[in-house]
């Protein structure tokens, strides 16, 4: 056995480096056959293999004393440690795996690749290697079983690539183990092998990957559904060995994800690819099982990715288009999934969903003795559950024609969602505006946050269009506006809270626009189009949020109706909104206010922190915070050093009540292509001197306007417009942003018109 190990070591080193093999193919096949290590004899050299048919006189024996290759990146064990059948098997499997990897690698030299291909083909023909590897699945040695499954998967993929018919032993093995769920290791290895093969097909850059996948799935198309039903009908608490059930669940989930991804990204339609869409309730049940939190996370994230059409995105980058042309059958399947999610919520899914447990940490969830565990919810599940509901509503409403039905569903499910989130957000939602839930839940996951924001805009637009077509819309609009705030889906509030969460920083928006990792461009364009039509509502909301913020975070659920009592006085301009600033077309009262509010109007306009900041500004004006990203560091910059440049990230602080924007700040731009000049930065209309609060002195006229949400939003848009314009002018922007710049320009024009600039 000692000399056999040396021969395999030398073969491993050569194949690892992609070197051309000089000896006869039959010699290498003899030593690579896993059945060889089970023999009692221990051939020492290749010469003993020369007696096999067709091998005599065709080679010189390979010397076991030939120089080793020092570049091999692995440290092989000593001969004394490797003199066993187990070690030889592991080395054989490793050599086969590396050899197939070299065949598939583009950088392998052609002559060496052909030699490796011939050896593997002879190995497949001369022995029933599939059966031999399948037998190793039952081996109690987990490492050996895992290596056998890995090697078998690559051999199967090699056969598919070379158009070699798959062996009957392999097909029979899969059909036996997938016909019905059982707690055996063979099921796990069967699922894992199937998963690896499909992953390899996805990674392939050839144009025939659809045909390859079709050839692979055809023998198993009818048996997956039976296994799906059998697996998810199990009672987890009754399992004798829960770890085996978890392994089977995770293994099948990975396979299910790949099957679903192939449905979305490849032109292939098998029944097994639709299993989840045909029976989504079974998977939805898993997230309520008494099972480990990480299993629930994987399942709920999978459901979320299916709704977003993002399953398998990481496998498809650079090889195939992210999405095929619209598929009405797939759209119908996703609609069925959305309806199933909402039905599960209606039946109490959120009430049964546990979001408590050990926090997920790098290296595991176990804490060292003496370390205190910080209590808190599982934010991964919170985010995924929230996005499931908001996205399912959007998908359902896209296929719903009745406005009343949509309104009822929206209020019911959003109320259910806010009730679910309320105990898990600290401080709780009652002390905040209901629409703030989105930015608070998704603050650590910007891609999901923007998906949820985009869905909320889509819901609002869809429902508004349907309602506007009814005769009673004029009378119902006030109630509709009230519900959008009360149930947390007003798009203007959501956008303002999003801007607040990023400190009204235009460079952050620029990052989102440039990045392809989020849907910000689609969301931003959709919102800007809405903002053009809904400017008066946006103006009113900005003013009201400023009043509320300056009153030291009073109860927001009460301030939704806090102005209703004095509605008539607001209509004549006597309320706090009039003190903050007049607007020709804006509502003088807040449209979502209730008629029954017993609370008096809020008189506080500015917080103590803001007053202190403003007093300090007489001595030293506050400076803009440092930009996170420098977009204007190129040597050929056309901007003077005396200008305050948008691309260098002039931004306001993340604390809106503590920052005063200066009137004299200039924004650099190309005067031949931009209508605004350096001296005409957007300004919010000034008001007469108004007391800040009882007992307080008067503040400068421009103070309230400049710290307000409206001013900061418009200023952020202006800075973003300037940065995008300059980058596009230098051909540095990744796509044509002309339409986006036009929208930003139109918002700027609306602002200037309404503010009298």
Characterization of this structure:
Helix 4 (85-104) runs parallel beside helix 7, helix 19 runs parallel beside helix 22 and helix 33 (709-729) packs antiparallel against helix 34. It is built from 34 helices and no strands. It is an all-alpha fold and 757 residues long. Helix content is 55%, strand content 0%.
Task: Summarize it.
The protein has 34 helices and no strands.
Total helix count?
A: 34
* Distance between the first and last residues' Cα: 91 Å
Helix content: 40-55%
Look at the structure and give the mean pLDDT: 74
Structural class call reads mainly alpha
Number of extended strands = 0
List keywords for this structure.
757 residues, mainly alpha
Write the layout of secondary structure elements.
Elements: H1 2-16, H2 25-32, H3 79-82, H4 85-104, H5 110-126, H6 129-135, H7 142-161, H8 168-178, H9 185-203, H10 209-217, H11 224-232, H12 242-265, H13 275-278, H14 280-286, H15 293-307, H16 313-316, H17 328-346, H18 349-352, H19 379-398, H20 403-421, H21 437-441, H22 446-468, H23 473-486, H24 491-501, H25 506-514, H26 520-533, H27 535-550, H28 556-559, H29 567-571, H30 576-580, H31 608-616, H32 703-706, H33 709-729, H34 738-755
């Amino acid at each position: 056995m000692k000399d056999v190990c040396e021969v395999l070591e030398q073969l491993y080193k050569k194949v690892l480096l992609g070197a051309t093999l000089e000896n006869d193919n039959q010699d290498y096949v003899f030593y690579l056959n896993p059945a060889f290590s089970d023999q009692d004899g221990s051939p020492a050299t290749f010469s003993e293999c020369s007696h096999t048919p067709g091998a005599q006189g065709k080679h010189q024996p390979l010397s076991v004393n030939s120089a080793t290759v020092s570049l091999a990146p692995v440290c092989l064990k000593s001969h004394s440690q490797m003199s066993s059948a187990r070690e030889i098997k592991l080395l054989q499997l490793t050599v086969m795996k590396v050899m197939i990897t070299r065949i598939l690698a583009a950088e392998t030299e052609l002559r060496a690749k052909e030699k490796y291909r011939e050896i593997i083909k002879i190995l497949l023909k001369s022995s029933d290697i599939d059966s031999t590897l399948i037998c190793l699945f039952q081996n109690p040695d987990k490492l050996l079983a895992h290596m056998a499954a890995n090697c078998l998967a690559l051999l199967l993929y090699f056969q598919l690539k070379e158009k070699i018919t798959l062996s009957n032993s392999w097909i029979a093995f899969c059909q036996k183990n997938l016909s019905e769920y059982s707690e055996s290791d063979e099921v796990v290895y069967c699922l894992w092998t199937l998963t690896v093969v499909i992953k390899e097909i996805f990674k392939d850059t050839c144009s025939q990957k659809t045909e390859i996948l079709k050839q692979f799935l055809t023998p198993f198309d009818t048996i997956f559904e039976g296994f799906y039903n059998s697996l998810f009908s199990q009672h987890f608490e009754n399992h004798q060995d829960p770890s085996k059930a978890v392994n089977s669940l995770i293994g099948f989930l990975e396979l299910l994800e790949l099957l679903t991804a192939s449905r979305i990204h490849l032109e292939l339609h098998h029944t097994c690819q639709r299993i989840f869409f045909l029976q989504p309730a079974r998977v939805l049940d898993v997230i309520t099982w008494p099972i480990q939190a990480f299993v629930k996370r994987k399942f709920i994230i999978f459901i979320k990715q299916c709704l977003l059409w993002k399953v398998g995105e990481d496998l498809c980058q650079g090889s195939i288009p992210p999405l095929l042309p619209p598929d009405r059958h797939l759209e119908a399947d996703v609609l069925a999934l959305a309806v199933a999610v909402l039905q599960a919520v209606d039946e109490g899914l959120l009430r049964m969903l546990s979001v408590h447990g050990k926090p997920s940490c790098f290296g595991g969830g176990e804490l060292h003795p003496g370390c205190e565990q910080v209590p808190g919810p599982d934010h991964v599940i919170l985010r995924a559950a929230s996005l499931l509901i908001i996205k399912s509503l959007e998908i359902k409403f896209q296929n719903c024609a009745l406005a009343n039905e949509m309104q009822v569903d929206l209020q019911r499910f959003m109320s259910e969602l806010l009730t679910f989130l309320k105990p898990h957000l600290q401080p709780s939602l009652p002390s905040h505006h209901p629409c703030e839930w989105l930015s608070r839940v998704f603050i650590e996951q910007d891609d999901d946050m923007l998906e949820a924001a985009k869905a909320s805009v889509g819901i609002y637009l869809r429902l508004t269009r349907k309602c506007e077509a009814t005769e009673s819309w004029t009378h119902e609009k006030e109630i509709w506006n009230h519900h959008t705030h009360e149930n947390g889906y007003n798009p203007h509030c959501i956008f303002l809270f999003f801007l607040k969460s990023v400190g009204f920083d235009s460079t952050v928006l620029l990052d989102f626009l440039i990045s392809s990792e989020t849907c910000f461009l689609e969301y931003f364009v959709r919102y800007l189009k809405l903002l053009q039509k809904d400017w008066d509502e946006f103006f009113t909301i900005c003013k009201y949020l400023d009043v509320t913020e300056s009153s030291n975070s009073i109860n927001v659920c009460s301030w939704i109706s806090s102005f209703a009592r004095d509605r008539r006085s607001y209509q004549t301009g006597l309320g706090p909104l009039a003190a903050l600033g007049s607007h020709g077309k804006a509502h003088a009262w807040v449209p979502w206010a209730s008629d029954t509010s017993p609370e008096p109007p809020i008189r506080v306009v500015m917080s103590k922190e803001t007053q202190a900041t403003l007093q300090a500004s007489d001595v030293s004006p506050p400076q803009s915070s440092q930009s996170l990203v420098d977009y204007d560091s190129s040597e050929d910059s056309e901007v003077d050093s005396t200008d305050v440049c948008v691309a260098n990230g002039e931004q306001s602080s993340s604390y809106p009540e503590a920052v005063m924007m200066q009137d004299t700040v200039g924004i650099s731009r190309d005067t031949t292509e931009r209508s605004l000049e350096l001296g005409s930065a957007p300004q919010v209309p000034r008001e007469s001197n108004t007391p800040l609060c009882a007992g307080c002195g008067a503040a400068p006229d421009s103070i309230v306007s400049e710290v307000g949400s409206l001013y900061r939003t418009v200023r952020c848009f202006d800075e973003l417009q300037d940065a995008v314009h300059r980058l596009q002018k230098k051909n540095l922007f990744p796509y044509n942003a002309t339409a986006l710049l036009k929208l930003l320009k139109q918002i700027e024009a609306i602002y200037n018109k309404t503010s009298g600039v």
